[in-house]
Amino acid sequence: MAKEEKKQLLEEKNIHLWFEGAPVALCTMRLELNLDANAIFAYSKMMNVQPEHIKEVTFDVICYDSVRIIVDTLTDVKYRNLDIPRNGVFGMDTPIRIRNVQTRNVEFVLKSVTTTSGQVWNNEEKKRFNMSLEQESIYNVLGDLHKQFLENCTRENIDQTKLILSPKFEDLYWLCACGALNWSDEEKCSGCGVGKDWLMVNTIHDNLRKQDEQRKIDNEKIRLQAAEKEKLEKKRQKEEFEKRKAEYAHQLKKQNSKKHRHVIFIVSLILVVLIAGGSGTYFFAVPYFRYNNAVTAMNNGNFDEAIAKFDKMKGYLDSDELRDKCVYSKATNEFYGGSKEKAAELFASVINYKDSNEKYIESKLAVAEDLMVNEDYLEAYKIYLELETSEKDVPAVKDCKDKLYLQGKELMRLNHLNAALETYTLLGDYKKSQNLVKECKYLLAKREYDNTRYKSAIQKYEEIKGYKDVDNILKKLYNLSIIISAANDDESPAVWDAFDEKCPKCGKTTQYICEFYNDGKYKFTIRCVNEEHNEEITGKYKIEDNKIYLSKYVNGISTWSERGTVKKVNLNEVAVDGKNTSIQITDFINEHNKETVIIYGNKISEEMMSTG
Q1: So what's the pLDDT on residue 63?
Q2: Model's pTM, two decimal places?
Q3: Which of 88, 368, 370, 610 has the fewest CB atoms below 10 angstroms from its CB?
């Protein structure tokens, strides 16, 4: 067993520091004296805060004595051979030997970061880690409203155990409640996946306070409804008891006359059983007794039990009609003392029984009325549309449309575009809703494109051809649409091949495999005859007009550099290996190759998609 090293902790800081544009953040710093080696070692824990995987980090270590005087500087210290994903940490297990024994504190100064795709970020301005990313406890910030925040998480199926910090929203970045740093244009947290807009809305004290007050009102309403239901149930039980008592007295009066008929029935039943043998009990006696049990449950108000029993009767006597009667009675109870939504469901299930259709409409209108009170105008209006209710029949419809229209405007102001789109789509011809539908789609398409979700963006632009500058945008994205047409929503890419090209390293024959994904990511694979030169390059791309751009991270944000030009596109002609499209393009993989290459792939036409 290895001997345990003796260590003395000289300095340790749990810090969460960053500076504008840095691809990594500094989480902790530790300084130890190794007594066995009689040497001082420094440790740092850094975190990758940008999308690309990190391959190498270079930094300086400034050494201070106990009174903060510089006693030494270690230059170009490196963490090598890394493969650190977004939000991954590294460095805490890598000791850095400190030369000056007077060192009691150290400072890490970031110099460069290299990603696995070959992109290099340099700290040209020699910035220091000086911006604190520390966050307060969300429980302490929200106080009594934290319970409402947790309820909102549960309602949206969000893992509340990860959201323990108070979020921060700045111009260049935002910190999620899980602690992850995200760039300002990222709509979802890179760490836990929670939406930025949702997090902003659901940590505003005024919003939570209103929701909390409404929750208390709803709970009180539920309590009163339960009390009223209990009161009605006791009243019903009393009336049922009086009814049964009267029936029992009536039965006693007729007992003598019935006794004779009852004996005849029993004797007849016994004879039938005897004649039929053992199977007679099943075919005659058992259904009769089950029927009586179901009727008894119905008369006692146990509708669920009665419904279950009648369901097993399979049309025995009038069991189907009695089952509908039970459902109708249960629906009536739900309407007056339970849930009007549940009542509507039950009335709908027996829509042809008595006046169930009218009762269904009445129940749904009552549900819509409750939704209006709770300012859920969208769901209320869906009910009015379902029932084809006019403003003449129900005046509340006009009020609902007015408030829903204004709610859509507020949703657009808050940039909740999908919700606004649903709102204005439902409103149809009301006011200028159709134009607002196009505006929502226009803004959504732009947002999708800005976030490199290209296929989704193009589809949305296609839906609003002729609106604003959409036709020009689609023309600008024509080559992009061709290149990604074979990419699927299941994250499989459109694959393009270039054969018999030159290897960037040795100039020998090589094959390019270009994979373009719907979400703006690419993977270029180089397969050289010299297998040692095989290489894989990843990153993000965009294609506008006839230009191909690849991404590069500068100061923490993605910038684009032109890497290729589309020269010629040949559609619907069999090319290599049966592929139907070829594109002549300048070499965007090998920057040193000034010649054009031809890449081959399949463009999916609308006819091909419609036939699978």
Answers
A1: 95
A2: 0.53
A3: 610
